Amino acid sequence: MTDEKDPKVEALAEVARASEQHTQAIDNEVATRDAHHEAIVKALRAGAGPSAIERVSRYDRQHIDRIRRAAGIPSKRQPTVRSMRKEDPK
C-alpha cells in the first residue's frame, strides 16, 4: 500500500470545494443586492430623489428608476415628453 493519493480524486475534490465557494458567493451577492434594493426603495419612500441616491449608490438613475417602478412607487414628476400620436386629431 502506498500513501499516494490519486491526482484525479484530489482534483475533483478541489473542484467540489471551489463550486461550493462559488455557490456561497452567489448567494451572498443575491442577499446583498436585495438589501441594496430595499435600501433604495426606503430612500425613495422617504422622499430622496434618484439623483441623490445615484451619488451614494453604485447604480445610475435609470436603474434606480427601474427599482422604483418595480416597487410601485410613483415618479416625483410628471413626464415632460408626450406622444404626438395621442395629440394628433386626424
Overall structural class, as computed from helix and strand content, comes to mainly alpha
Q: Can you tell me the residue ranges where pLDDT is under 50 for at least 5 consecutive residues? A: none
Write down the secondary-structure element order.
HHHH
Count of individual domains: 1
Count of β-strands: 0
Task: Determine the mean pLDDT.
Answer: 89
Residues in helices, as a percent range = 55-70%
How much β-strand is present in the residues?
under 5%
Give the CA-CA distance, first to last residue: 93 Å
- Radius of gyration over all CA atoms, rounded: 25 Å
Main β-sheet description: none
Question: Helix segment count?
Answer: 4
- Give the overall shape: elongated
Task: Explain the layout of strands and helices.
Layout: H1 7-45, H2 50-56, H3 61-70, H4 84-87
Question: Care to describe what's here?
Answer:
- The structure is a single chain.
- This protein is mostly helical and 90 residues long.
- It has one domain (7-73).
- It is 67% helix and 0% strand.
- It contains four helices and no strands.
- The protein has helices at residues 7-45, 50-56, 61-70, 84-87.
- The chain is elongated, with a radius of gyration of 25 Å.
Short description:
The chain is built from 4 helices and no strands. With 90 residues, the chain is an all-alpha fold.
Any descriptors?
90 residues; mainly alpha; 4 helices; 67% helix; elongated
